[in-house]
Amino acid sequence: MEIIHVQFSGAALAARRGPVEVSHDDTVLRRRLTPREEVVLTDLDGDFHSARVLMIDNAGVDPIYFLHLGRRLSLVEAARRLNEIDLHGALTQIGNALQY
After folding, report:
1. Fewest 10 Å CB contacts: which of 10, 52, 75, 80?
2. What is the CATH number of domain 2-99?
3. Predicted TM-score (pTM) of this structure
């Protein structure tokens, strides 16, 4: 599972209608996401949210992901989703994303 930092506050995410749009270049991921893939989002407030890839627009050079925003996650829940086995590695990944 991947973690993606979005340039929205938690309030802005909660107020959104419809999917969250994120370009692949903005994700800083090394690989492309796939439809129905689950991810963890972090917002500008440092909160975590579950999300799922609904659709991918590959019309341009940079794919655009349309993400269905799920519920807010605690730090422990986010870490577990990112890596069930290696909690320390997951917390490190979360810390790195928050510094972005």
Report:
1. 75
2. 2.40.240.20
3. 0.78
